[in-house]
Amino acid sequence: MYSDSLDGLRILLKNTFPQVERIYVSSMPGEFARPSFFLDLVAASEEDLCRDYYLAAMTWQIVYFAPRSNAGYAETFNQVEVAGRLKKTLMDSMVILGPSGVMYHIENLEGGPRESEVYITVRITAEVVRHSKQHEIAEELHHEMRGV
Questions:
Q1: What's the pLDDT at 143?
Q2: pTM score of the predicted model
Q3: Domains of the chain
Q4: Alpha-carbon torsion angle 77, 113, 2, 16, nearest 10
C-alpha cells in the first residue's frame, strides 16, 4: 500500500514534469541534482471500517528543488510555475492512481513555494479490502447415518 501510493505519486510527477529527471525518496544525498523532487512519508494510519475493509491514510510531503541561477539563488519563477502546475494537477483529479489500480483519494492539499524550495503536503486515503483466509471446499462429503 505504501509503495503503491509512492509509485502513484512518482508516476504523477513524471507525467506532469517529464523534464525533471530525479525523484529522491526518504533521504537526500549530500550532493543532489537540481531540478529534482523529494518524496517523504510523514504520517500513516489505518482505521477499521468493518470486518472486510479498513481505511488507510497517508500524508506525503513533496519537495521540489528548483534550478539555481548563476548567482546561486533558486529560480523563483520556476518555483512558482511548478507549484502552481502541481497543485492544479492534484486538485483537478483529486485522486492518485497506484500501479496496482488502487485509487488514493486526495483529502487535503497544502503548501507552496517557501524560501528556495516548494513544499506541498498531500493527505491521501484509500479503502483497502482485507484478504480473508480461503478454505478448501470439500468436493465430496461422506456421511454415515446410524439408527436412532
A1: 66
A2: 0.82
A3: 2-129 (3.30.2000.10)
A4: -20
